[in-house]
Amino acid sequence: VIPRAYLVGLGPIGIEVGRALRARGIPLAGAADPTYAGQPLGQLIGDGDAGAIAASAGELYARRVDGELSVAVLCTGSRVPQVAPQIEEALAAGLHVVSTCEELSYPRLRHAELAARLDDAARAAGRAVLGTGINPGFVMDRLPWTLAQACVRVEHVHVERVVDAARRRGPLRAKVGAGLSVEQFLEGVARGALGHVGLGESAARLAAELGFALDEVEETLAPVVGEGGVVKGVQQAAWVRSGGRERVRLELVMAVGAPDPHDRIVVDGDPPLDVLVQGGAHGDRGTVGTVVSAVAGVASLPVGVVTSYR
Amino acid sequence: VIPRAYLVGLGPIGIEVGRALRARGIPLAGAADPTYAGQPLGQLIGDGDAGAIAASAGELYARRVDGELSVAVLCTGSRVPQVAPQIEEALAAGLHVVSTCEELSYPRLRHAELAARLDDAARAAGRAVLGTGINPGFVMDRLPWTLAQACVRVEHVHVERVVDAARRRGPLRAKVGAGLSVEQFLEGVARGALGHVGLGESAARLAAELGFALDEVEETLAPVVGEGGVVKGVQQAAWVRSGGRERVRLELVMAVGAPDPHDRIVVDGDPPLDVLVQGGAHGDRGTVGTVVSAVAGVASLPVGVVTSYR
Fold it and tell me: Cα–Cα 20 to 30 A to A128, which of A117, A250, A300, B220?
């Protein structure tokens, strides 16, 4: 069954998702974004007759036909509190939800009550709610736990991801603080405006999927500083300890000119596995790929907030 | 829900699977193998009280308790016609089936009628039937299609796997024809006694999972010949063409002293992916890992013959 997609949020990723959905043959019921309200969607995402861009999600969901398999694709924000009302609105209108919201990949880590409320709402509606992307959502969680399926026993998983921010679009360079002073960087971090969102979520969901209790989930964040004290990017780590032992460690560097971009997953287990994604999985295109794949396969997702996902 | 496992076939892999199930905390109802009938299972797979080894699967399944979640773990053969009656017996007794049978990873490729009959029987029984292992079952099919989930579009997938047979147990060296003359090798191939079973199955299921029609599925097999005309192993390839274009190509070398053992998955798509399993995934331990993981997760498998499996 091919679902119909309702795209909410036309930032750079939302626009790419819209184009990719069309290319994949998934019909778009339309899109909503107040910035472009009333403009033809075809102008933004290429040819097509998905009508005028709605000013709100509610206006967009009114196009839904009863009984149809429909997915709200929310490309609107990184934090669960911000996206939760949008999820509830989509569920109430009868839609499944696939979102690029980073925290939604494992919402209970930072928002236990809200996550439980969303899970209840999704179950009551008989719909799936999935946060996905390349990271969180793939290279540092789903791919490692898929690899662990080939293991009799897993002692520890270590994932490192190095991204050269110079090869990525402007918003990523801004997000990692490139060009700032250390003082400005620290101020941005304190405001929650800088850094990668979702590393702790990846660590927690990976550990949970591997069967480890989440006794401690810790995170660190620091600037990568270049010549003259100018910030080039960010380095972050997250790890999970369970029963007094570290079980998962994720390390992420996103910096302008970061040498040797790659992803590496090392499973200490039986058998051991050492897997290298040469050059690293592309962040934006990979995120679009995971979103489009999830939308295409939404009918086979379990009901509720989906955090364990193969 | 933790299932109870019924192990059928106590060859080298069956014994390793039995030990791994215990280590993973999955209760073993017992095992069946006429070679060891009447002997305590604990002697073969380590401590435990799984009773005496049964002479037949039927005798073993008689231990099943009505309403329990039970899995027959069939480590008995590589070909579907050989294993099909065992699958039907297990289904009739109320068990799910997880098997190392290589052809069962995509049974419809070579045995369309039998595959349909097994699928009907499994659906009628409300049970899952899964053929798994490291290859087929993981490195050349399931792992590549998991990677493709991060792609907006896939044009072609190329997987190569190089195994140094010198580092593996005797049965593998025999299976690849190491030490034979070319004449003996070709005679063994003609008898169906030599070579890796399942490469075509991996290619077909990977292509099917990626959405490509299986217009042509082709395979080749040749000896790797060393000094003095002595065979060192086997090199095989399988590929799928769809709509006039090659979409999947798998290349496998298993030979004594094969240089640079590894698995490599190259996805030509958007984004492209180039993934290296450094040193290669271990065949036997990886197979045991996939089997134990599948048994542990059997409750979440779909009903029927499962060929698409994340």
Answer: A250
Give the DSSP H/E element, type plus range, for residue B74: strand B70-74
Instruction: Write out pLDDT tens, residues B94-109.
Output: 999 999 999 999 999 9
Q: CA nearest A110: which of A200, A39, A35?
A: A200
Q: Is A208 helix (H, G, I), strand (E, B) or coil?
A: helix
pLDDT at B309: 73
Which of A149, A161, A307 should be substituted to probe chain B, the one whose Cβ sees the most B Cβ atoms within 10 Å? A149
- Which 3 state secondary structure label does DSSP give B247? strand
**pLDDT recorded at residue B6:** 98
With both helix axes pointing from N to C terminus, report the angle between B12-23 and B283-296 in degrees, rounded to the nearest 10: 50
All residues at 6 or more sequence positions from B302 whose CB lies less than 8 Å from its CB, including other chains: B128
C-alpha distances in Å from residue B122, one per residue of B63, B93, B118: 21, 11, 6
Cα separation, A18 vs A25, in Å, equals 11
Torsion angle, alpha carbons of B130, B131, B137, B142, to 10: -30
**If interface means Cβ-Cβ distance under 8 Å, which residues of chain A face chain B?**
20, 23-24, 134, 138-139, 142-143, 146-153, 270-271, 273-279, 281-282, 285-286, 288-290, 292-293, 310
Beta-carbon separation of B281 and A270 below 8 A: no
Whether the model pTM is above 0.90: yes
pLDDT above 90: percentage of residues in chain B: 92
